[in-house]
């Protein structure tokens, strides 16, 4: 990561990443070209390539930024001191709020996987790394809550989330989120009653 003389991340890098993040999420990874990112970030091509040797590197950095943002949000819920079941509900509510936000365009990771389906590609690998972290975090919460078995409950939560993220672009987001939250409550009720 390029830093200036004071050890701060360079302003040009931050601007490039912010511009790419906005454009990639709104319009798609393949639809947005390097020339447009350079023009909107108001940097030169040389500056872009100094920070990101290829568009692929920029896409991976974008996904890492989205991952960090989501990890921080889940981290806040984990640090809340709430019991694990309530942390799961808080994570679900946060997902629902995102789906209902004005510029929602689906899951950045599902969108990226659709554009980069080769599992050996670095972009797809970044998607898989994020999903592994998220599934692991959710499954750990089910385990901490004493739910048995936690693995199927975690996978079901993630699958419901994926469906809500896709449906939130295609149907009434309020209804989608209501269905998603009821589904999460159903998982919690069914696993706690066993």
Automatic annotation (TrEMBL):
This is TetR/AcrR family transcriptional regulator. Gene3D superfamilies: Tetracycline Repressor, domain 2. Residues 10-70 form the HTH tetR-type domain. GO terms for molecular function: DNA-binding transcription factor activity; transcription cis-regulatory region binding. The keyword Transcription applies. PROSITE patterns: HTH_TETR_2 (PS50977). It comes from the Bacteria. The keyword Zinc does not apply. InterPro entries: Homeodomain-like_sf, HTH-type_TetR-like_transc_reg, HTH_TetR, Tet_transcr_reg_TetR-rel_C_sf, TetR_C. Residues 33-52 bind DNA. Pfam families: TetR_C_13, TetR_N. Keywords: DNA-binding, Transcription, Transcription regulation.
């Amino acid at each position: 990561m390029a830093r200036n003389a004071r050890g701060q991340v360079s302003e040009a890098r931050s601007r490039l990443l912010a511009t790419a993040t906005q454009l990639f999420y709104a319009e798609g990874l393949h639809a947005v070209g390097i020339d447009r990112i350079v023009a909107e970030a108001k940097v030169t091509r040389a500056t872009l390539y100094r920070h990101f040797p290829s568009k692929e590197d920029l896409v991976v950095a974008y996904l890492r930024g989205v991952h960090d943002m989501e990890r921080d949000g889940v981290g806040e819920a984990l640090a809340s001191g709430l019991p694990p079941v309530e942390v799961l509900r808080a994570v679900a509510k946060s997902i629902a709020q995102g789906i209902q936000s004005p510029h929602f365009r689906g899951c950045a990771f599902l969108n990226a996987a659709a554009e980069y389906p080769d599992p050996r590609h670095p972009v797809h690998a970044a998607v898989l790394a994020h999903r592994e972290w998220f599934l692991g975090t959710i499954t750990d919460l089910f385990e901490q809550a004493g739910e048995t078995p936690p693995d199927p409950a975690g996978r079901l939560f993630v699958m419901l989330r994926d469906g809500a993220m896709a449906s939130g672009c295609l149907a009434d987001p309020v209804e989608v989120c209501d269905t998603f939250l009821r589904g999460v409550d159903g998982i919690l009720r069914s696993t706690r009653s066993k």
